[in-house]
Predict the structure.
Amino acid sequence: MAELARIKEQLQQEIREREQAEIKLRDSQEQLRLITDSVPAGIAYVDAERRYRFVNKTYELRFNLSREAILGKYVWEIIGQETYNNVKSTIDQVLQGDQKSIEFDITYHTGHTSYISCTLSPAFDASNTVIGYYLVFFDITERKRLEDSLKVANDQLEQLVTFDGLTHIANRRKFDDYLMHEWQRLERSQAVLSLILFDVDFFKHYNDCYGHQAGDACLIQIAQAAQDVVNRPADLVARYGGEEFAVILPNTDQQGALVVAENIQHAIRALAIPHERSQVGAIVSISLGIASTVPTPDTLPDILITLADRALYTAKQQGRDRYSVSI
C-alpha cells in the first residue's frame, strides 16, 4: 500500500509539474504573440511544405484575413500565384539554408497593391536540418513612391543642368563633360575620336533681318536637323554657344566624320530656311570644321577643340557654306 501511495504521489507531482510547464508555455506563447502583434511588420513562420504555421496581427491585417484563415494554407494561396512565382526561387534558396532579403510589389486579394521589403531566414531543428523559414516584411510603398519621385526630380534637374533650354539638345556643360569622358575612355582603348564644330553663316544678319524670335526658331530647326542625322547612341550633338554647335563622334575616323558633316550640311540645306541677308545664298547655310585624333595620356581634349575650331575658321575664310578638315 505504501508503495502504491508513493507511486500515486509521484504521478500527481509529475502531473502538477506538467501543468505548470504547460501554463508557462502558454504564457510564453501569449507573450510572444503580444510582442509580435505589437511590431509594425508582417511576421510569419512557414514550414518546409510551404504552409503557414504562424502569423502575427500585422500579417493578418495586410492580407485582410484572420489568423485561422491563413494557418495551414500554402504560401501561394495567400500571396497569390503570380507573386509566389516571382519569389519562388528566393524561397527555394532559403529552404536550402540561405538567408535572403528581397523587395517586390504585391497585389492583395482586395485589389490593393503595395511594395514590400522582406527578409527570409531559414529555421533549423536540433539536427541542423532546415524545417521551414521565418519571414519579416515591411510595407515600403511610401518610401518607394518618394524614391521614384526623387528620381523623376533628379532626372528633370539633369535635363535642366545638361540640356539647352532653347534647342533641347545637350548644352556646353554636357559637351565638356562628355568630351572628357570619351577622351579618357578612348585613350585607354587607343581609338579615334572626331569632333565637328559648325555655326550658322551670317547669323547676326539673319537676326537683324527677321528678328530674334525667328532667329531662335532657326536655331531650333538646325539643332533638330543635326540631331536627326547624328543618331548613333554614343554620338552627341550639343549647342556649343550662340549659333555654334558641336558634334562628338567616338570611334569615328576622319572619313567617317566627313560623311557625318556632309549629312548635316545636306539636312540644313533641305530645311530651305530663307536668308535674304546671307552673302553665300538665299537660304540658311552652315560652315563646319572637322578634326580627328587618338587621345594620348599627355594631351587634353582642348587640342581637339582647337583643331576643329581652326578648321571651322578655314571654312569661313574659304567662303563659308562648306566644311574644312584639320590636317
Remarks:
- The mean pLDDT is 90.
- The chain has two domains: 39-144, 163-325.
- Strands lie at 42-47, 52-55, 100-107, 113-124, 130-139, 193-200, 236-241, 244-250, 286-293, 323-325.
